[in-house]
Amino acid sequence: MSIPSTHTACVSDEIGTYPTLRAVATPQPAALGPGQALVRLAFSGVCHSDVALSMGEGTHAPVAPIISGHEGVGHVVALGPGARCALGARVGVKFIADTCMSCPACLDGDDMYCAEVSIASISRDGTFQEYIAVAAAHLVPIPAGVPLHVAAPILCAGLTTYKALVGAGLRPGAWVAVPGAGGGLGHLAVQYALAMNLRVVGIDSGDKRALVEGYGAEFVDFRHGGVVQAVKAVTGGGVQAAIVTAGVIEPYQQALEYLAPRGVVVCVGLPASGTIAVDPCRMVTEGHRIIGSAVGNRRDCAEALALVALGKIKVELEVRPMSAIKEIYQELEKGAIKGRVVIDMRQQAQPW
């Protein structure tokens, strides 16, 4: 296949600016390094962290000019020396683009904590572009039967929530609270928890009730107040885990109050500011834990996608053109998007 000399990308010239479309140089097959693959991207999910990083609100500062995105899906079109991947394979490019694969963190499967980790949209260009050269070893195979645009949000939102639930170490039948249950991460956390035979109480505004209850979860409307008491009433005393996907601080404080003994708060959402008060005596006497969870490794991603292939997970999404990227960012800033948005980066519309 012929590889063009340039392709279209969404580029922010500096931190704090919205991306615009422009032509950038396309990596050529002859220039691919050992173990690299060139992927022709068809879709990319848009995550709130893309906006935060571009606007300088994240925990890490990206390198400008910025090409964001870390939920890219497409096909392998060229391979560098020694790359172990098939031409034409349907693959995903996720947040963790490369690691050393030999440090203690990598050997433990904790890719995110590799000292040499390469992160799409921060330390290297991301997936809001038509072509990308990446480490073939970190490409994620997309299962047959899963449409590419559906797979895209699983590479971050799905992976992150799945890994958080795995990290909670729960037994079937345990109660899980999901603050932010109707959001882009939250609606997937609810479904993954149910697929793991857990009982779920979703916490969100009342307009998300039908969505969350439609999955088979209980629901608490935080706008009515009394969240702690409401969760305890629904669960008969408290939850074994809270997977906090909301990006504000108050749900974290509430979660500490409605935990059952030996419960765990899993920190996923990233508040722009704020801290929580922790009572060490209660932590000790009730055996509570607070842990952080950031994305996941290649095996976690394969498992998260497998549940989609089995029909256990339905992604609430909207596909929009690449040219709408600025408007998508603005809507995410306002909290006006339900579920996920996926941008279509193909030049010609094709059936999915």
UniProtKB/TrEMBL annotation:
Names of the cofactor(s): Zn(2+)
Enzyme class: oxidoreductase
Cytoplasm listed as a keyword: no
Cellular component annotations (GO), alphabetically ordered: cytoplasm
PROSITE patterns the record matches: ADH_ZINC
SMART domains with a match to the protein in the record: PKS_ER (SM00829)
Domain of life: Eukaryota
UniProt cross-references to SUPFAM superfamilies, sorted A to Z: GroES-like, NAD(P)-binding Rossmann-fold domains
Name recorded for this polypeptide: alcohol dehydrogenase
